[in-house]
């Protein structure tokens, strides 16, 4: 028998990992019935959520994200004796068959620790759907008592923006000598970043990493200061050898202290809640529209006409909206 | 006195640049009154649109996009004696104050040619709004007789996806030696690309560019073949010195011939029209919702509650949707 939302929440709040996993699965489902259950579970969890340090982590494939997350997670659970949940947003994973973010086998040390909870990216669906599920998973993990949440994402399109918009601090992993100064770094992403870590600063790379650090530091000076007054910090590490990981986390904590003292942590989260509200509204509107009988009946024909060019998308949109809403309720 | 939509269209179809510019300005406006006029203008232009070769161009800042577009445009208007319109999608431009895509002063040779029409990115608003306006501008330029449309975008987040979704062929500009193989290239973007051009293959860079070309060629082999059967082509050029530009355009034409012969050009445009339809619907729904009296009245209070955490976004969304639609029309 399936547990009721209440039972699920009781288990989750008591730290039952199976209950947490099941609640996240509900949040990932696109079935209307599951969505309602997921919302009920989440509502009950919300009073217990919000307490974690939420860190977003991005970087191009090959930068060593999994190794870094593994090393950082191990530092948190072993040296600091804290709990950590690892989540991921990777809308490309199911289609492209690349490495799966949040794959436990790529974080062997962390995966075996009882203080860590690792969950791969929800698969399938749009970025919007994947991001919505992960946003809910953060809150569920917090309610389950996880004190630190790491959300990793791959450097693909808009997913970094989505992850920066659900975390308190955003970390960009880079390689030493991967290019001159900001070469290869997207302008729009740089302005989301609170912390740049140059990974793989080991072996013959140590000098290049130090040079890259200086380059990034001077490049970052070119960006206008953020309203919250935190200037992005650049540091180096070797996740493979475990060096620089403690220092990276100390910067995260310094960032957190700055954001808390200045009131910007609350403001950042308030803005995130507001944008989440609008995302939810848009999702509901789209669904209500597409699932209404009048639209469902006409859509196949309209789509076909639009695809052949016999009907312009502009006119088609107007026609469908009128069919949906004949009384002209605007 | 302002011209009627009909007068505007008559001027535009006759090749009047002021009429074209005014029609694009209408398409960029967010005023409901302008939107209606813009739709009427566009509907009248649609029968005359669709004939151009639409090329999307992306690449990180510093790769020489403006120089390349200038050189390619000059090749089109002088060597080929064809017309060209240059448009841009850069949602970041107004906020970040960087260089403006489509700025005429950065394309000095092309800007002075009567066969070229250059229009900077619409400023302000979301990526959705900027993309919608540019999509309409493409059609207006086609109706005005421009045979080639170049749409440039900067390598920021989702804007590349948007531009690939409004063009027939998508070109990625790269630098020689900017990194090993695919380092710095986002996986998600690589799968949109039909053509990679390594720019700045001049001076001491010639060998590095040749090496980069081989590297990219072997890296591109790692991607699964696209359903249309076109494998991305890698070429080198020096936009500064004008070398390789003709060759780049020949690849664009080869790509076009392949897509036409295989029927994939029509399929690509059909998919674009369908996605445009859904974007329009979502925009209309959002607006109808936000502008309805019942939502407008409650929104400020609800937003405030959500921002302080007193009301969850989930519950807030449900409440607003119910307020909008009390009869439960789903």
From TrEMBL, chains A, B:
GO terms for molecular function: GTP binding; GTPase activity. Belongs to the SIMIBI class G3E GTPase family. ArgK/MeaB subfamily. SUPFAM superfamilies: P-loop containing nucleoside triphosphate hydrolases (SSF52540). GO terms for cellular component: cytoplasm. Gene3D superfamilies: 1.10.287.130, 1.20.5.170, P-loop containing nucleotide triphosphate hydrolases. This is Methylmalonyl-CoA mutase component.
